[in-house]
Amino acid sequence: MFESMNPENQRRDDEAGLDRRTYLQIAGGVAIAGGAAGCLGSARAKEVQYGYGGDPMVLDAESLSTDSVDLTVESEPNDTCTNANPIATDTEVSGTLEPAGVDWFGFDVESGTSFDIVFDRVPETGVTGVVVYGPGCEYQQLRQVGTDRQVRLTTTASESGTHTVEIVDVNDADGDYTVAIDTGSLDTDPTPTPEDDYGEAGYGEAGYGGVA
C-alpha cells in the first residue's frame, strides 16, 4: 500500500514512541473501518483488533523536559519523541513536513487541564496524521486529516507533565503546516472542524492496544 522506506527512515522508526510502520498500520485500519462507515463521514472508526500488542512505551520524563527555549518555528531534528521540539501553550508554531516525514513537539500541562491540538496545513490533498501522547510518550489520541481546513483535537490531561504531539505524513501530505496547543488563550480565528474528515480513533479503536 505504501512505498518501502530507506534505511535512514527505518532507523528513525525504531527510535519513535509509535513508529511510522505501526502508525501506517493503524492508519490502514482506520481507513478500512472508515470505508465501512462511509469513508469520509463523521462516524467514529469501527473498533477492531489489529495487533499493535505490547505495553505502552514509557520513557524517562527528564529526557522529555520542555525547559529549553520555546519555539515558534520547527527546528530539526525533531523526528522522535525524545527530541521533540519544546513549545509553549497558546502559541502557534509553523513547520514543514518532508515526504514520509515525522515531526514531534512537546509541551507541559497540569493534570485536569483541557486543551485543543489546533492543526492547519497547506496541502489540500493527501493524509496527515496528528497523534497526541501523554507523559512518557504514552499514546492517547489519533486524528487523520485530509483537507486544508483547520482541525482541533480536544483532550484533558489525566496527569501533569510533558505531553507530545506527532505530525506524520501518512500519504502524500508533505508541505507547510501550523500547530498550536490551545488551553483557552490562543489568539486565532478558529475555523469549524470539517465534517468530511477521517474522524478520530481512540485507544482500542482501529486496533491500537487491543479492544477498548
UniProtKB/TrEMBL annotation:
Residues 201-212 have a biased composition (Gly residues). Residues 182-212 are annotated as: Disordered. This is Beta-glucanase related protein, contains cellulose binding domain Type IV.
